[in-house]
Predict the structure.
Amino acid sequence: MRAVVFDSRLRFTPDATLRDPRSSEIAVDVLQAGICETDLQLCKGYMGFQGILGHEFVGVARSGKFAGRRVVGEINCPCHNCDTCRRGLTSHCPHRTVVGILNHDGAFADTVLIPESSLHAVPDSISTETAVFVEPLAAACRIPQQIAMDGQRVTVLGDGRLGNLCAQVLRHHGCQLRVVGRHQAKLNLLRDLGIACTLLDELSPERRSDIVVDCTGSPSGLTTALQLVRPCGTIVLKTTVAADQTLHMAPFVIDEVTLLGSRCGPFDHALQLLSENAVAVAPLLSASYPLEDATAAFAHAARRDTLKVLLNIR
């Protein structure tokens, strides 16, 4: 099958091998897939991943309860048997594989294997290119599951793909919201939705935010977040980077700042938001490429003026 492989370099191959599915897995024929910041970081050495990339996708299930239907898939594939899984923390299963990220070939290919329990049917009202956003939108939906937002002064730091989605989700949760970013054109997309925005270069550090959500994808994001969060406030860390990070940790102790990691979230919430047109994803689409042109697609996705780049597979 065709696939995009990373094995110390990014390359397209027409003859990748699809392994035999496990008893719990369904073969999903991929329609479209999205390139995200994690994919870019994997190509810089994050997680030491080698194999077929890709975890944001829409496809058609070949068998099982969703046979013949469009589906999206959660990226964590847990064992369902360990103590962590029995506590309901399946996304943190120590034995899990992670699609396109950890010991599990991903969706930049003709076909991807996903546990049936991880699949969600896509309603007919949601287009295929819109449904590609379910996985990152679910990650944004994780934040209000973790921390109460109502009445809080919230700063989303970063105006890229994930920062945009986080802002659109959080505005439905009763907070005083603003987005701080580096790119006027990207901030304008959020202003058009009625969300307050500020260019980072025009921002005076004013440690007034109750919550700062770091979506910068940059090693410097956490340092900037510390300059904005109030004492006893919370920084929600969404950023993952391959580069080594050095940070003076004393401010966390002195100012009693909480650092909250935030990763994967509820697909059902994301699908509901898209069904209700409560989140606008069409303005985030920058370009689409055939699978064979993945190298050019990745180069486009890495540009500062880019939001979401898709790979068309069928």
